[in-house]
Each structure stands twice: as C-alpha cells, then as structure tokens.
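TICKET: design request
STATUS: open
ATTACHED STRUCTURE:
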C-alpha cells in the first residue's frame, strides 16, 4: 500500500452476499486514487496496487471480483497480469486501461478474456461507471450461473441416489440456467458494443450510425426471410465499423475529402475490425459482415474484390444500409442528402454496387422511413422488433 492511497478494505466477495471487491492496478498515483474514489463511491470495497507484483501479492492475500489494470507498467505488464490472474474458479473480471492508439493491446486483452477496456485519459466519469456496471453485471450473472450449475449437479446426484422422478424440477432449473447463459451472452455483446460506441464518440457526425444500421438491417433480413441469420446479422451490423478504432484521428475526423493515401488507411478499418471480432468469444460468425460490407456486386469493392453471390448476403444488406445512412447524415464536407435523393442513388447503383434484391426490399417497402423509437443507442433486443413510422 502506498501512502496517500485509498485504505485497503477487507475483501467481501459477491459470492458471499457482500459488496464487490475491487482491485485497481496503475503505476500512476493520480489515476489510481481517482479510480479508487469513483469505485468506492459506487459501492465497491477497493484495494489499490502500484504494480503488477503488488497486485499479485494482494490477490494472494484475498481474492477480488473485479480488477481494473493499466497495460503499460514497469515489471509485470497489465497483459501479463491478466494472463496470471484469469485462473481460479471463478477468476476475477478484468477491465484493462490503455492509452489512445494502443489497439493491439485492446485486442490482445480481449483475447486474454478481459471483460472490457477503457481508453486513457478517461472520456468521463460516466464511461468509467459504465465499464464498472458492465463488469459487475457480468460477474453477478457468472456467480449465479455457477450456483445454478451446482444446483443442477446436486439435483442429478439426488436423482441417482433416490431413483425418484425429479424431471420437472430438473427441467425448471435447466431452463433457468439457459436463461442465465443467454444473459451472459448479451452482456458480452454489450461489452463489444462499447467499442462501436467508442468509435461514434470520436466522430460527432456519426452518432447512432451503428445502431441505425443494425436496426434497418434486422428489418430487411426479416423481410427477406433470413430468420436463421437474424442474430448474426444484428451483431455484425452493430459491429461493422468497429475497426475504425484503429484509424488515426487525422484521417477519421478530417474535415474534407480524403486523398489517396488517406483512403487506403480508412479502408484498413475492415481488416482491423476483422481482427477485433475474431478475438471476441461468440462473435466469429460476424467476421464476414465486418470484412466484406464494402464489397461491390461488380467486384470493384474492397478488401477482396468479391462479386455477386460470393459476397455474404448479410454483408450485402449491411452495405446498402451503411451507404444510405452515410448519405443521409451530415458530414464535415457536405450536408445530408434528402431521403428521396439518397433512394435515387441506391436505385442508380443497384446491380453494380448494391444487391438489387436488397435495394428493392429497402426501397419498395419504405423501410428507410422507419426510425428506431427512444434513444439513438437501442439494444440488440429492441432492434429485433421495435420500430415507429416517421413522417
């Protein structure tokens, strides 16, 4: 413990019905203190460490529910610490903290099963609290999931010993376990969606873009009878631009048209996005959407110059909706186009840039006039059926 830091509180694990035990690891005293105050105010029992070595010593003395750790530290780095503490049953949930532009660290942390990441300097106290709440929800559900698994094992053992019919009880507990696992999957998506929100936060002109693309893509998919692709389509649409986290600000936020070299940098976002979604458990099916949503029917798109049916249908849907939203959103170098003009351009480009069938569904059924209700940042579940007609 370092002089002036927050007092070490006794460990009280959620599993024992107490407040969450939190460990903050950062070699920067001001960040360490700031986080300790915020997380203690949120109800956590907070301990702090100035290094990876000190963190391991504190964890050996008492486990933690949540660990917030810096990546770049002398001695044991945050990534090495992540690998060493993501053991045990259950291991702590880890939120890594990285400086801007350290994309590789974020991807490696997600591969190492970190639950979330924060960019430093922190955008706001709200962003820290959002990461805390996501990690805490995931931890709570994980512990509940473990409790249900133990309960199922006990019920199975009782059935074997007594040879009694406990089928109804087992079915109820199995259904409860499945619901718990589904909630965990949704929280994993929420963590990834934070990446999409981080991109939109960097560009004030594209707020809500990923969520609108998800909303419209879901409606088109259902209209085209793609029920079996629904989950993949929604998740891939939400994450289609996640690779822009690796595009430098001077390119992403340039107040004018990009030159040739800048376009090459911007186009790399589909490859960066592919790397990110491959690193996230359960998101492998979205790779085709993230990588190929800028391909063209004519074969003139990128990154692989795929054409026609070789382009995954979900990527073709997202490509149409992505282009439409871009045309109808004001950018630094032009104002938004009227809906009718954007529709005319879609019609003009179908058959060589866009899939004719997708454009026809989007236009003929006037899906482009449907807008999400409520806040711009709707959930995946809300996108599956919540819509209102706009004038």
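STATUS: resolved
RESOLUTION: sequence designed for all positions
ATTACHED SEQUENCE:
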């Amino acid at each position: 413990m370092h002089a002036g830091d927050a007092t070490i509180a006794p460990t009280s694990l959620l599993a024992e019905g107490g407040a969450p035990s939190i460990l903050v690891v950062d070699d920067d005293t001001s960040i360490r203190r700031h986080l300790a105050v915020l997380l203690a105010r949120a109800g956590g029992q907070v301990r702090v460490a100035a290094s990876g070595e000190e963190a391991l010593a504190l964890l050996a003395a008492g486990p933690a529910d949540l660990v917030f750790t810096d990546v770049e530290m002398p001695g044991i780095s945050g990534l090495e610490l992540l690998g060493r503490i993501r053991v045990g049953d259950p291991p702590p949930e880890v939120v890594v903290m990285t400086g801007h532009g350290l994309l590789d660290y974020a991807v490696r942390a997600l591969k190492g099963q970190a639950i979330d990441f924060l960019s430093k300097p922190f955008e706001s106290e709200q962003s820290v609290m959002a990461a805390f709440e996501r990690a805490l929800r995931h931890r709570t559900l994980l512990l509940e999931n473990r409790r249900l698994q133990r309960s199922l094992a006990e019920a199975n053992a009782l059935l074997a010993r007594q040879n009694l019919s406990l089928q109804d009880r087992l079915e109820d507990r199995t259904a409860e376990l499945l619901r718990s696992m589904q909630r965990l999957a949704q929280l994993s998506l929420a963590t990834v969606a934070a990446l999409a929100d981080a991109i939109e936060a960097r560009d004030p002109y594209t707020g809500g873009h990923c969520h609108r693309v998800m909303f419209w893509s879901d409606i088109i998919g259902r209209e085209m009878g793609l029920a079996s692709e629904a989950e993949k389509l929604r998740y891939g649409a939400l994450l289609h631009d996640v690779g822009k986290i690796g595009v430098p600000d001077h390119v992403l936020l340039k107040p004018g048209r990009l030159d040739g070299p800048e376009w090459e940098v911007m186009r790399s976002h589909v490859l960066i996005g592919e790397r990110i979604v491959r690193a996230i458990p359960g998101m492998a099916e979205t790779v085709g959407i993230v990588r190929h949503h800028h391909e063209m029917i004519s074969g003139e798109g990128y990154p692989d110059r795929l054409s026609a049916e070789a382009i995954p249908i979900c990527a073709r849907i997202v490509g149409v909706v992505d282009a439409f939203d871009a045309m109808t959103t004001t950018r630094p170098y032009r104002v938004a186009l009227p809906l009718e003009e954007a529709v005319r351009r879609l019609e003009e480009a179908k058959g060589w840039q866009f899939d004719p069938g997708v454009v026809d569904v989007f236009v003929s059924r006037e899906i482009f006039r449907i807008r999400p209700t409520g806040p711009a940042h709707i959930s995946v579940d809300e996108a599956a059926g919540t819509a209102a007609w706009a004038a």
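CLOSING REMARK: Residues 1-12, 374-391 have pLDDT under 50 and may be disordered. Residues 125-162 form the longest helix (38 residues).
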